[in-house]
Specification:
Length: 268
């Protein structure tokens, strides 16, 4: 029964997309990619101009931990080109954050022809929620996960003198911050899958135990340390996001929208 509903949803969506040819889709995709890249270039230029301030912001967590355990807070590098490469990487990641509203808008413009007229009103909630969730994930990583991870790692090896390079530190920082930002986009993914009728709130609730298992598997993979505490810190917001996603699926699933429309028509 569920498979029939999915097939009907996909068939209806395919018929709706039939107005555009394959070549027109490719041309539209090329246009949106170029515009997104132009926005990224502008964001990169702005962030690279402030690379010293961005690095100072990035260095705060490890400076605090090194100071706590009496170590020199200045990071090192092994190759003369490392600082330059690090600033380029910081500018690129910062540019992605800065240009994310523009990039997401291009994504929406690409997928909007495949949406029905009444579905296109979701553009503003989509933009706002996507940006806020990504920033919330980054903030959660910067303020809680990353400091706790550094404290655990440095405290565990405090009998040795740390020699952390700027490249290693930057890679770890970006892995946690960007990784959590992406993980916090779970409700947005469920939003689109539910909007197209591919998943439902009932299906997600019935498979809740498997969802939790998958969440802890993902947390174990992306967590920078193997301890249970760090894994649970990664997993706890993902569980909350899964529950939030169930509510999102219930709101936007075609069957629920049809039921609400019929109820409003009956009460009118």
């Amino acid at each position: 029964m569920a498979d029939t509903g999915v097939q009907q949803a996909l068939q209806s969506r395919a018929e709706h997309l039939g107005a555009m040819s394959f070549l027109e889709h490719l041309e539209e995709l090329r246009k949106r990619i170029i515009l997104a890249l132009l926005g990224l270039v502008v964001g990169f230029g702005v962030c690279y101009a402030f690379h010293n301030q961005i690095y100072a912001f990035m260095q705060k967590p490890i400076t605090a931990v090194f100071t706590k355990y009496g170590f020199d807070s200045k990071l090192t590098y092994l190759n003369p080109i490392e600082p330059f490469n690090m600033y380029l990487k910081m500018g690129l990641i910062g540019g992605i954050f800065l240009a994310s509203p523009w990039i997401l808008y291009q994504l929406w413009c690409f997928i909007s022809p495949g949406l029905y007229r009444h579905e296109k009103r979701y553009v503003v909630p989509f933009m706002v929620c996507t940006i806020l969730l990504f920033l919330a994930g980054g903030w959660f990583g910067y303020r809680l996960v990353y400091p706790m991870t550094l404290d655990f790692l440095i405290e565990y090896g405090k009998q040795f003198k740390p020699n952390v390079t700027i490249s290693e530190y930057t890679d770890l920082f970006l892995t946690i911050i960007v990784g959590l930002g992406v993980i916090f986009e779970m409700p947005i993914l469920v939003f689109f899958l539910s909007l197209m009728g591919l998943v439902s709130a009932g299906w997600m609730w019935r498979n809740f135990r498997y969802g939790i298992l998958g969440i802890f598997v993902v947390a174990a993979i992306v967590a920078p340390t193997p301890d249970i505490m760090t894994m649970c810190i990664f997993a706890s917001p993902m569980v909350a996001l899964y529950l939030l996603s169930i509510g999102v699926a219930w709101l936007v699933h075609p069957k629920q929208r049809k039921a609400r429309a019929e109820a409003r028509a009956k009460n009118a």
